[in-house]
Design brief:
Strand content: 35-45%
Number of strands: 8
Number of domains: 1
CATH class: Alpha Beta
Helix content: 10-25%
CATH architecture: 2-Layer Sandwich
Order of helices and strands: EEHEEEHEEHE
Distance between the termini: 16 Å
Radius of gyration: 15 Å
Structural class: alpha+beta
Length: about 130
């Protein structure tokens, strides 16, 4: 069983052109519950951030809610992310997953949040709203 926190507010998945500089509003002064992740490739920059931090030039994917495993994870653990994704897949809820050094995160579409949290609870996880 995992303890999963529903982070406040909406999140977005964005795409920016390769070489784009991120404005400070994206990553500065993050609140205690906020998370931002950035991936750079030769094809472009992918950004996941709170909806109120989106750079003006970004192409934005639909709005999401972010679920985070509460306790820091040992990097040697296996199957933790799968334990979240598997019940969501069974419920046919699409996800975007990412990890930080300390824990794993899963984005679910805002319109499917009730289904997602229900699926996680049926799988034995505790969702903290």
């Amino acid at each position: 069983m995992l303890d999963v926190a529903l982070l406040p507010g909406g999140y977005v998945v964005c795409r920016l052109p390769a070489g784009t500089a991120l404005p400070p509003k994206v990553w500065s002064d993050l609140g205690a519950g906020d998370v931002v992740t950035v991936s750079w490739t030769a094809d472009g920059l992918s950004l996941i951030c709170p909806a109120d931090r989106v750079p003006a030039q970004a192409v934005v994917e639909t709005h999401w809610r972010c679920l985070r495993i509460v306790d820091p994870l040992d990097l040697a653990l296996t199957g933790t992310l799968a334990a979240l994704i598997e019940p969501l897949a069974r419920a046919r809820v699409n996800v975007v997953a990412f990890s930080t050094y300390d824990t794993d995160h899963v984005l679910v579409p805002t319109v499917r949040l009730a289904e997602a949290t229900g699926a996680l609870e049926r799988a034995g996880h505790r969702v903290h709203r």
